[in-house]
Each structure stands twice: as structure tokens, then as C-alpha cells.
User: What shape does this take?
Amino acid sequence: MLDKRIGVTPNKLSHAKIRTIENSIRVAGLFRQKARAIRSLAKVCDSRDLRRILREDVETARLELQQLPKVGPKTADVLLSIWGRPTISVDTHVDRVSKRLGLAPPNGKYEEVRESLRVLFDEADHTLIPLLFMAHGRRFCKALSPLCSTCPVMKLCSYALSTHAKRAR
Assistant: This one.
């Protein structure tokens, strides 16, 4: 929606009205705060050479992006993914699925989960992994009521195996 209404270039976003940005991202939740952050970041990016940053190696680009206002590790990873750079962003679904499958430490924070997945999968698949894990988390591995009995990877899932083993006792 944002792309159609305004365009997602730093110049267009930095000159857009806050209300227009808000209405374009309303479905995302916390749209008022995000709209201000988007416009603020766009103003900074408009004055910097964002294309140069995005051409850096992934880890250097991540660090440089995180120096921008309101940009943390997840935002940097999402931006790099959009630009086709091999990185893994970790949202709530990716976090939950990777921990339940035993692919990341159960109490791991963002960077630990990201690193666990990064070393497990080929770099060529890094931008695809979050999309697959998000889809799986939405369809089967729900937060409160996971659908373990119909899950296609149940036999590989430490969470499902331990949960069903407890129920069988």
C-alpha cells in the first residue's frame, strides 16, 4: 500500500505527509509511531548514500544500517532481504518455529536465533527461510494452539514430540 500511495524512496517518504504514511501502513499496527519513524529515517537516508551501504558486505551493511535512527537488527535484516542480500530476519514466527524445532536455543535472543539459522542453511536460502518459517508459524505452529497433529514436520519437532509424549503418559 505504501509503495502504491507514496513510493518507497527516501525522497518521496521524507516529503510525504504523516497522515498519508499512517493511512498506508495502518494494517501494520502501531502505525502512528511507525509513520513518524519511517519519515524520520527517510530524511536521514535521503541525505546519505543508502545504495553504497547496501552494496557493502552483509555484516558491514547491517552495522551501518543500525546506526540510522529507529533501525535495529530486525529492520536492517528486512531491508537487506528486500534488496536481495542473504540475511535472515527473525520475527515472532521465525523465533517460535526455530526454537520449537530445536534449531535455535530455547531462550535465545534475536542474534542467537539468527546466527543458529544462518549456520544451518545455505546462504542462497537465507532470504527464503524467514518466509517459510513465517508461513509455517501462521499455518501450523501457532503461539497458543499449535496444530502439531497435522504439522508436516511433526516427526522432526522437539516441541511436538515432547508435548505428545507428555500427553501419552
Notes: Residues 2-71 form one domain. The mean pLDDT is 88. The chain is about 60% helix and 0% strand. The two ends are 50 Å apart (CA to CA).
